[in-house]
Each structure stands twice: as structure tokens, then as C-alpha cells.
Design goal:
Number of strands: 9
CATH topology of the domain at 132-363: Aminopeptidase
Oligomer: single chain
Number of helices: 11
Largest sheet: 7 strands, mixed
CATH architecture of the domain at 132-363: 3-Layer(aba) Sandwich
Helix content: 25-40%
């Protein structure tokens, strides 16, 4: 009897369990004696997603033995920390190549603004200087700014203008910024201008300013003129008594700044080069066309050429007119009216000569600078 009752209870229990099983075609009930919720992940903000998805860079505290920042080798062997779950991660934005050097350009502007009384940091930043694919001996960026002509339908005359080949000629650098301001405020030029405002940043910014670059080379004696190999060092010894301020280097175009200027000439293909110096208060000229009689208060006084000078290389070897403006003082700027008068006279001469030079360049691709 008892055995029969136990069998009956077992059968009843089994039938009850089968009744409670969900139908295969119906979803299981979400109710449960124990309420356990599935984890719900909030979308991670984009910035946090990038941080969490990347392997964190170990800090000094992560490497207490050496107490030095981990090298790339030790970082590679270090275990990656656990990341928070991320539902979707935005693709990181790759900066444009030019932007990679913008912090260095900004740093150069800070140095220039702190060094020159007539150019503030904001003055420099406002010019939107661009990294020009070159570095000085001490790895400062070499910069440029281009101003396009109002009319691009006609053959364009390209004018290359530079200052600060000698780092201690402050006014030659400052006047670049004044003339860039004039162009920026009145973009009605017929020319494509390229400014190289500071060709020798180390000479200006490495402690006390010097004529030479960081290697002690006078960049305006380092251009690869045809007579350099034969006469540069001999002329330096004989005519300057081996004055270190005018050392031409051990070989032509040995300096990174010189090589950079050569590259600018080769790629930009100017029909005229303007180089600003100080403090001889004159206008020098080298090249195949008629020189201007004056630019502002600077009157023509041709000095001749030196082995390795820009006038020698550009004006004689390449046949590109080179205007050298020697301001009256290296440390004192010309007055504002005089700065403007020089700019007007320079443009008047260019309006007269540059179109013919451009036409000759266009019709004769064999011209040496092209």
C-alpha cells in the first residue's frame, strides 16, 4: 500500500514538472524567483572610448626599478591593462601632415616674439607661417608664407623674398613681418610672393645673436657659386684675415639652411629674389636686367660679388635678378612711412620688369633657373 502511494506521488510530481515547461514555440518567461538583470552598457563618449581602447602608456610609477620612462622595448613587453567594455569606437582622426609641425612653428613664434622688440608673439602667430620642409642645424623649423596673386589666369611672376640670413640683423627679419602685414591687408598683388622671414633661426635665437648659423658658417658665403671650390676659402683668408664671422664653410652648400634655400629656389622658380640685410644703407643688385636706381631711401651701390654669396649664385650663375636691400641699422627699424615707401618702390620696379622675365621664362624652358 505504501509502495503504491509513493509511486502515485512520483507520477504526479513528474506530470506537474512537464506542465511547467515552456512551449518550444513560445519565449521563456522572464520572471524568475531570483531577479538577476543582464548588464547594460552605456555608450562610452568618443574621447573615453579612444582612451579605453588604446593600450595605456606606462608611467614612471609603473617602472619603479629604473624610475625612468619605459622605452619602446619595455612598453612592448609590459602587459596591457584591462579596458572597459566599449560598444562602438570612433575611428581616430589622423592630423594633416602640415599640422604635425604646427607646435614647432608656434614655438618658433614664441622665440621670435621674445627676442625681437618689433615683432610680438601674436604678430608672428597671425602670419600663419607654414613649415617649409626644412630644419636648421639645431632642428628649428624653417618656415614660409605664400601670397597668391589676384589673377591666376595669366602667367604668374613668382617673387622670393627672405630675411634673417644673418641672425644678428634684426631689422631684416622684422621688416618681413611688416611687409607681410601690408600684403595681408591689401591682397591686390599681381605676383605670387613667397616669404622666408627667418632663414637662419639658430643665428637669431641661440643665446646672443650671431651672423653665422649654429655651425659657425656664414650662410651668405655658403651658396654653391661656380667659383666656390676655387676661391672661397682663399678669399676668406686673404680678404678677411680668416674672420670667423665670414667663414664660408668647408664645402659649398654644406649647411642645412643653405640647402633649404636652394630647394626653395629650385621648386618655387622665382623670377626675382629679394634678400634683406643690414646695416650698410644701400641697394645692391646682381643679375641680367637693369637694376633699380633706388628702393625707398636706399640708393643703388653695387658691391660686386663674393664667392658663395646669394648674389653670385642666383644673379650670375642662375641668371635670376637678386635685389639686396641693406637697411641702415641692424637693431633699429626704419620708420613706418619708409617701410611703406620701400614696398611701393619695390613693387613698381617689379611691375616694370617681372612680366618680361616671366614671359622669357615661359617661352624658354631652358633658362637656367627653370
Amino acid at each position: 500500500m505504501i509502495r503504491s502511494l509513493l509511486i502515485a506521488l512520483s507520477v504526479a510530481t513528474l506530470v506537474g514538472c512537464l506542465v511547467m515547461l515552456p512551449d518550444a514555440d513560445q519565449p521563456a518567461s522572464v520572471s524568475s524567483p531570483v531577479n538577476v538583470e543582464a548588464p547594460v552598457y552605456e555608450p562610452v563618449p568618443e574621447k573615453a572610448a579612444k582612451q579605453n581602447s588604446a593600450v595605456s602608456k606606462p608611467s614612471v610609477a609603473d617602472n619603479p626599478v629604473s624610475e625612468e620612462p619605459l622605452t619602446a622595448k619595455t612598453q612592448a613587453s609590459a602587459p596591457a591593462p584591462e579596458s572597459l567594455p566599449v560598444i562602438a569606437e570612433a575611428s581616430p582622426t589622423q592630423p594633416a601632415p602640415a599640422d604635425l609641425h604646427q607646435p614647432a612653428v608656434n614655438g618658433l613664434c614664441r622665440e621670435i616674439g621674445n627676442k625681437l622688440g618689433s615683432v610680438s608673439v601674436s604678430d608672428c602667430n597671425n602670419q600663419n607661417l607654414q613649415f617649409a620642409d626644412g630644419f636648421s642645424v639645431n632642428e628649428r623649423v624653417l618656415t614660409k608664407r605664400d601670397f597668391l596673386p589676384k589673377d591666376l589666369s595669366e602667367p604668374v611672376s613668382r617673387i622670393l623674398i627672405m630675411g634673417g640670413i644673418h641672425g644678428d640683423e634684426y631689422s631684416s627679419i622684422s621688416i618681413m613681418f611688416k611687409w607681410m602685414n601690408l600684403l595681408a591687408s591689401n591682397q591686390d598683388s599681381d605676383f605670387h610672393w613667397r616669404f622666408l622671414p627667418l632663414a637662419n633661426p639658430d643665428g637669431l635665437l641661440d643665446g646672443e645673436a650671431t651672423r653665422q648659423n649654429a655651425n659657425g658658417v656664414d650662410l651668405n658665403r655658403n651658396f654653391p657659386s661656380g667659383d666656390w671650390e676655387r676661391t672661397a676659402l682663399e678669399s676668406w683668408r686673404a680678404n678677411t684675415g680668416s674672420n670667423p664671422r665670414r667663414f664660408p664653410g668647408h664645402s659649398p652648400a654644406s649647411e642645412p639652411e643653405t640647402q633649404w634655400i636652394l630647394k626653395q629656389i629650385e621648386e618655387f622658380k622665382p623670377v626675382v629674389i629679394v634678400s634683406v640685410h643690414a646695416p650698410h644703407a644701400l641697394l645692391d643688385f646682381d643679375g641680367p636686367v637693369e637694376a633699380p636706381n633706388k628702393i625707398g631711401h636706399l640708393h643703388l651701390h653695387q658691391l660686386g660679388v663674393y664667392p658663395g654669396s646669394l648674389g653670385n649664385y642666383g644673379g650670375l650663375d642662375l641668371g635670376i635678378p637678386v635685389i639686396t636691400l641693406e637697411l641702415p641699422s641692424a637693431g633699429i627699424m626704419p620708420s613706418k612711412p619708409e617701410i611703406e615707401n620701400m614696398w611701393v618702390d619695390l613693387n613698381n620696379w617689379l611691375n616694370d620688369k617681372a612680366p618680361g622675365l616671366t614671359k622669357a621664362r615661359t617661352s624658354n624652358p631652358g633658362i637656367s633657373a627653370d
